Amino acid sequence: MNNLEADLLRGLWYVACPSSEIAAGKMLGKTLMGEPVLIGRAANGSVFALRDICPHRGIPLRHGWFDGETVQCCYHGWRFDTGGTCVEIPSTHAAQTIDTSKITCGAYAAREQNGLIWIYFPENGERPEDGRQPAPPLLPDFAADAAPQLAIMLPFVCSVDHAALGLMDPTHAAFVHTSWWFKKNAKRLRPKEKPFAPSELGWAMVRHKLPPQNIAYKVLGDDVTTEIRYALPGLRIEHIQGSKHSVVGLTSITPIDSTHTEVRQMFWASMGWVRPFKPLIRHLMTVFLDQDRRVVVQQREGLKYNPKLMLINDADTQGRWWMQLKDEWVRSGAENRPFQNPVKARTLRWMS
Q: Taxonomically, which superkingdom (predicted)?
């Protein structure tokens, strides 16, 4: 965590992009987990992900063409199906015999869920169902085919560790998120006390009531409560529930490589009248997330000198949990044993 770079966890599902970014017959090249990935949607609507390098001469396949069934390289016309297998080499002479089925560009398991495209990065070439995280996590209250009503993404010039620690930090808001519409009296710190408990691949701020004086929550009905979960490989899931409506917010942290990260914020809401307010809400979301982005860019100025960082109780306990979870994931995989969540239930106290 002291360094600019982060170790990237494998054997897990990562958010690649919203489903809406890729129409049928289209493809999108990205770098994820330090690897070239080509994401596409076949003519039948199914999504796929290939290693974005032609095995012939190494040119990225994204520079080629996709006819809805096969991807054709722009250099020599080699074609690959959506599973990554070569199906045609145009330059093959009639006198030659080449078994194209033995040639592959490589593929990743891809799945659509909750209006997002998830990609699985294996540890040792395993299929997700044979690994330690068979499927992406389901969101509470919303069907697996429910798409987010709002989604934004900002690239963070920092490692996934520092992006994660910044987003789970409970005490920075008074100094980073200062806008006329949020934390107007930011420097007036108040005592906070929240119970936490281990949850799947992470931990949760135990469900609790939200302040009734907050007008924004009144649209959800009475007795509004919230639970906030953090989970590997970089997910923050907030579930706000009232007597009438519920809202789920998902923040995903996906490494581009060891020093660059994509941070997405997405929301699902049961209220049907959100649509007219989308432009305003999207603007406010972007301003808020950009404040986090700017502070980690500033942080890099100091981190390049590799200082010894100081984490304190209780404000930085969640940061410690994050690193402990990562260490246990790597260690349990190397030792070929079940993952054992190192987080223990406790109450944390801080000023914010």
A: Bacteria
